[in-house]
Write a structure and sequence with these properties.
Blueprint (H helix, E strand, L loop, with lengths): L1 H4 L8 H14 L4 H18 L10 H9 L5 H20 L26 H14 L4 H10 L3 H5 L7 H23 L2 H32 L10 E2 L4 E4 L10 E4 L2 H8 L12 H15 L8 H14 L2 H8 L9
Helix pairs in contact: 2-3, 6-7, 6-12, 7-11, 7-13, 9-10, 13-14
């Protein structure tokens, strides 16, 4: 099979196919956050197996060993498995491989558990302190706590790191390893050359980051909720397809307490939330003031889901409001 598909004797490597797959996802308009996560998961694979490993030589046992060796929770491991399965299916579809090795690996068993959520008193303290020191972020957190929108649906997200930045970071990583090896062997000329290479790699990374930041200044933030989509008169928030994680529009009810919070900050136009970086800084400031030790990802969204179900006892209604699966409404 290998010789039939590679008559010139050159096998398609993991590095080549990962680059091609990520490029296709970017071309097809996949969410930047999803592409970034896929790239991180595949970078972990190529680090473990080697960039130049031919895809056709990757075995089921090797991938199973890689997944079991990941230091993460079972749900995160299953996410990595889904990514690898999609990647190797891409290779199969392009006749690089004959079969998908991940298809024979079962997902990790998951135990059902209660989601982490904040108490009503904790939310009250957080929001009051936020209104006191960073009122610009109040609408964003109010909508997160009392409408359950995802952070990216409210704040938007920056685009992916440019390919130049990704390559430059890898060059710095490789230069650091070269220097470490040179210092172990203790050869002055080799150490000097390795230090020069590292300095050059760092300079190249600095330039790539500057170019990326310049581009972001022009392009701005992708997505994010706009005030035009917050209708307090009819009591609904419209999540547009280009903003929604699922690429489907939906209407989310504005509860009376959410309307009370939003009335004070309501604007006719513009983004509801500051940039993701600013929101995180504001959140950290509040946590410091309240002596909160940690922040659980999607905490406000989980709090909304918990309290909504406790109030209404209706899973279908909750799923529709949160934009989950088949219950997502189309408009």
């Amino acid at each position: 099979f290998w010789t039939e598909h590679h008559p010139d004797g050159q096998a398609a490597t993991l590095k080549e196919m990962v680059t091609a797959w990520i490029a296709e996802q970017t071309k097809n308009g996949m969410r930047p956050g999803t592409i970034k996560l896929n790239r991180q998961r595949l970078d972990a694979l190529t680090r473990a197996m080697g960039d130049d490993t031919p895809c056709v030589t990757v075995t089921v046992q090797a991938l199973k060993h890689h997944l079991e060796g990941l230091k993460c929770a079972p749900v995160t491991r299953n996410g990595a498995r889904r990514c690898l399965r999609a990647f190797f299916q891409y290779c199969v579809d392009r006749e690089i491989m004959e079969a998908n090795p991940v298809a024979k690996i079962k997902p990790a068993a998951l135990d059902a558990k209660m989601p982490d959520f904040m108490t009503d008193k904790a939310v009250e303290s957080f929001m009051n302190k936020l209104a006191e020191i960073h009122p610009d972020s109040v609408p964003a957190f109010a909508i997160a706590f009392w409408a359950g929108l995802r952070p990216t649906e409210i704040q938007g997200q920056y685009g992916l790191a440019t390919e130049a930045v990704t390559l430059a970071k890898k060059a710095v990583e490789n230069a650091n390893k070269t220097l470490e090896n040179a210092e172990k062997h203790g050869k002055p000329r080799t150490i000097s050359a390795a230090r020069r290479s590292l300095a050059e790699a760092r300079e190249a990374l600095k330039k790539a980051l500057e170019e990326q930041d310049s581009k972001r200044t022009v392009d701005g933030i992708i997505g994010g909720l706009q005030w035009e989509d917050v209708n307090l008169r009819d009591g609904v928030i419209r999540v547009r397809p280009e903003t929604s994680k699922t690429r489907r529009a939906r209407l989310v009810d504005v509860s009376p307490n959410l309307a009370t919070w939003l009335l004070k900050y309501y604007r006719a136009t513009g983004p509801v939330s500051p940039s993701p970086v600013t929101v995180k800084r504001h959140r950290d400031d509040v946590m410091e003031e309240l002596k909160m030790k940690r922040w659980i990802p999607d905490w406000p969204r989980h709090t909304y889901a918990t309290m909504h179900f406790a109030e209404h006892q209706n899973r279908d209604l909750l799923a529709a409001q949160m934009g989950l699966g088949e219950y997502t409404y189309l408009y």
